[in-house]
Amino acid sequence: MHSVSDLGDLRGKRVLVRCDLNVPLDGTTITDDGRIRASVPTLTSLRDAGAKVVVLAHLGRPKGEVNPTYSLAPAAARLSELLGSPVTLATDVVGESAQATVSALADGEVAMLENVRYEPGEESKDEAVRGELADRYAALGDAFVSDGFGVVHRKQASVYDLAARLPNAAGGLVLAEVEVLKRLTEEPQRPYVVVLGGAKVSDKLAVIANLLQTADTLVVGGGMVFTFLAAQGYEVGRSLLEADQIEAVRGYLDVAASTGKQIVLPSDIVVAPAFQADSTPTVVSADAMPADQIGLDIGPESARVFAAVIASAKTVFWNGPMGVAEWESFAGGTRAVAQGLTEVDGLSVVGGGDSAAAVRDLGFADDAFGHISTGGGASLEYLEGKTLPGLAVLETEGA
Fold first, then answer.
1. Which residues pair with 349 in a beta bridge?
2. pLDDT digits over 260-317, tens only?
């Protein structure tokens, strides 16, 4: 992959930058601006080089239709604050406003197009439809920089097709993410511990299969753990359960046992009578969950064990909270895992998405960890061994 420096003198050039500004919102208030902050270094370097910088990004899933709920206006306002200079937001993606906004840019200025997912061609499975939209993007720029790691696993017009139409490069954020993932997959320092949480085991089946070959220990929590407990024959009450995955999970437990790999499961669970923030929590043994209760976090003993396993590792990758971390009564497991990562004498990686939001919500500073990824799904697919389209296209010459 080329870096921005390989694009040559960018003064006066229109540089289209695909960022990932898909931040969580409460109404129009950004609740975690981590992805926006992560985009600042590359945008600043392009601005300082005298480029006319045009940001392409998405927010949410408007499904090819203009929907004010998903406007990038909050992201543009926050980016303006972080850059210390105005970021003009076009009112459309490739229409008259976008063209006028780009034409008005002076050297070193930054503008943003509206949500690329307002365009039905952005996520189309039809290459010709995506290509037509990519042509319209390309007409607005002289070069393309991919800096939205959270979308590089998507074959979308502003991620994949556009990169093939202009001289391209990977931004600093994407290069840093790939460097970390290489450290996780190419001779990682051992012990290598992977912590997986989140809701569904089906989302992580492929990565579990791959990690059983590369990691030494898998630590499992979150909603997905109840399918593991059910695979051992335990009652899981009204907890989240993917019954159709029990046999697959049982197979992974067998593989781990036969290959000397360790899968660490919780010994106790925090349960409650209802999925509510104010529901009364109770700690029970993982093999004795009441049939009328729902598991919402790993228990305190499990939290201590998980943290100790993590802290003793040389390399740790974590994706997915251990419980309903946004509710204080059920955040203990996630807090313990995060604390364990801060104590790792080696590489500690928080794998994006809900995990990144959780550590910030719980009061941990970004620099307490070796790396906080901006792309959970992209990280998992990389660890699965998949080819990520948005990276593969950067290894070829653009137009």
1. 317, 371
2. 999 999 999 999 999 999 999 999 999 999 999 999 999 999 999 999 999 999 999 9
- SS3 state of residue 110: strand
Task: Please provide residue 168's backbone torsions phi and psi, each rounded to the nearest 5 degrees.
Answer: -125, 160
DSSP 8-state class, residue 118: G
The radius of gyration of the chain's CA atoms, rounded to the nearest angstrom, is 22
Nearest CA to 168 out of 396, 334, 384 is that of 396
| Cα–Cα dist 367/297, whole Å | 26
- Catalytic positions are 35, 200, 353, 377
Q: Using CA atoms, how far apart are residues 73 and 71, in angstroms rounded to an integer?
A: 5
pTM: 0.90
User: Angle, nearest 10°, between helix axes 246-259 and 205-214?
Assistant: 0
CA gap 36, 374 in Å, rounded? 10
Q: Is the peptide bond before 389 cis (omega within 30 degrees of 0)?
A: no
- Contacts of 392 by beta carbon, 8 Å cutoff, 6+ apart: none
Angstrom distance (rounded) from CA 185 to CA 211: 9
Give whole-number Cα distances, 9 to 1, 5, 46, in Å. 18, 8, 10
Q: What does each C-alpha distance from 228 to 155, 241, 294, 322 come to in angstroms?
A: 33, 9, 15, 14
Distance CA 175, CA 162 (A): 19
SS3 168: strand
C-alpha–C-alpha distance, residues 300 and 297, integer Å = 9
What residues pair up with 297 in beta bridges, in sequence order? 270
Question: What is d(CA 301, CA 39) in angstroms, rounded to the nearest whole number?
Answer: 39
